[in-house]
Structure formats: structure tokens, C-alpha cells
Amino acid sequence: MASFFRRLLSVRKPKKVLTRKDSITGRNHTFEVPYLSRLDGNQLQTGQSLIARGYITGNEGFIVNLTSGPNVELDEEETGQLDDRLLALRVDLAKGKVFLNACINGQWGKEAFVKQSYKEGDEFDIRVRCFEQHFEIYVEHKLIANFKHYVPMSNISHIYVTGDVRLYAVSWEGKLYNMPYTADIPGNFYVGRKLFVSAIADKKPKDFSIDFFAEGDIPFQLCASFVQKKVLRSSEISGTKSTPETNFEGKIKFPLKPKRSFDILIYAADDKFLIFINDVLYCTFEHRAPAAKIERLQINGDIQLIGVHIK
């Protein structure tokens, strides 16, 4: 099989940060592997992304496979052929590498790898974004490779994860979104609701914003400025704009980087919004109007939107 890589990049170990493990982020509950799930719907859409997050429980490593069917393991007494692995991603802790390959009709391609250091106890974040001709593969929010398809991505029917890990979440997010993105919020953004936004920053971003609307007011606007390296929060009530707040929690002043994927979670608490970036509490913003009046949101700026949903 021909080489399937357009580009490989080394991945440096990111700074250690503590994600918040509670019911807001969902990291207070994990589930075991092996994990095998059939994809919902008829087939994948261009722009959709697999997001697999969890933590490492041992030294043997783990795999994430996109397959053409549920036949993903053979018992010792079984013979035959497994379903195609359109993407086989294998993390080897001992070698400090992530290996990438595919197996079609029982034949493996030429294996390639990128360096990535993990150890037992580390959290991991692996993302695969689907396009007609290739996958984009992100490890710890950084693009490590473009992996060309051997067969159409419509052949993918299952996701399979196994090895020395426990999972926080495995999900398929989004599609190709037009910007600015605007949507009504069914039932409004009352206390207890959560907005999840997954995106990739552009190569040379200036900023992006998330605006919450309540009739003619903006009770909350979050603006991330890559130029100022600040996350600004403000409001506009009855035509009066508030002074932007720029304070933050923790030691990392600005955790967003060009060409990197990221998640933002906004939670409506009783008296304020809690803003998480990659499941780490970054800042808060006190309510300027009742959260239950917020009826619409808009996302705009120098990003590729991967997914948006409200719970």
C-alpha cells in the first residue's frame, strides 16, 4: 500500500494541568474498556470529529480503531479475518510513540508514528476529524498527521477502544459549520444548563466570541483575543456595555493556541457563569440578567467550529 501521510509533526508534552472532575465536566464518571459502539445515523458527514478522552491505567498502552464492522477481536480458538480497520491508532507507552496504520481485507499498510510521551495516570485527548479524502488526527489538541483513506469513510460503522485506559467520553461531534453560527436555545439557558463548544483555532487567529442574547440585551459575551492573549468577559444591558473582565484562575494566562483544537464549557450556576477551557476552570462571570432569559447564542471569529450542543 502507498504511503498515506502528508505530514507528520512531533508532539511536545504539554504543561500538566488538573481537569475538574465533577458532574459539570462529566469527568467524575468513567467507563471501562473494551469499548465498542456503532455509529448513529446512516454514515459520517464531512467535518465530523471523533473525540476520545480518558486516562491511562497501566503500561501496556491502548488502541483506538475505526472499523467497518463489529468483528474487532478473535478468541484464541477462532480463525478468520477481522473487519477492516480504516484507521488503527496505537499508543505505545514504552516506546513513547503513537503508531498509525490501516488494515483492509487483511492487509496492513506501512506503519508510521509520531513521538508522544505518556505514562500511567496521564489523561489523554485524541481526536479524528473526517474529510472525503483523509482524516486529520489530533493528539493533545495538536494536529499530528493527515491520514489518507484507503477506502471511503462511509465504510466506517464502529469505534473500538481497548487497552490500559478508562474513558471519560467517546463522542462524534458536528459537521462543517458556516460562520457566524447562530442558534436559538430551546427552553432558554436557565440555571443548571451547559453549553459545549469544540473548535480549532485558525493558523493566524485574531479572536473569536460567544454571545448570549436575551431579547435586545447581551447578558454575557466571551471574547478570546489571540492578539492580547486574554479571555475577556462583558455584557451589554439596555445599551450600556460593561467593562471587560480579564482575570483568570490557575497559572496559565491564555491556554488557547493557533491551529490547536480546544473545548469550551459554559455552565450557568446560581449567581454566575463558570467557564472551563479543556475541562479546566478558567474564569467566571457574574449574572447581569437572569440566565433563564437567555434565548439565543452566536459564535463567530477565527475558528473552525467542530461541535456545539446544550444540555
Automatic annotation (TrEMBL):
InterPro entries: ConA-like_dom_sf (IPR013320), Galectin-like (IPR044156), Galectin_CRD (IPR001079)
Domain of life: Eukaryota
Keywords: Lectin
Pfam family, one: Gal-bind_lectin
UniProt keyword Cytoplasm present: no
Residue span, Galectin domain: 36-173, 181-311
MF GO annotations: carbohydrate binding
Matches recorded under PANTHER family: GALECTIN
Identification of the protein by name: Galectin
UniProt organism field: Caenorhabditis elegans
Lineage, broadest ranks: Eukaryota, Metazoa, Ecdysozoa, Nematoda, Chromadorea
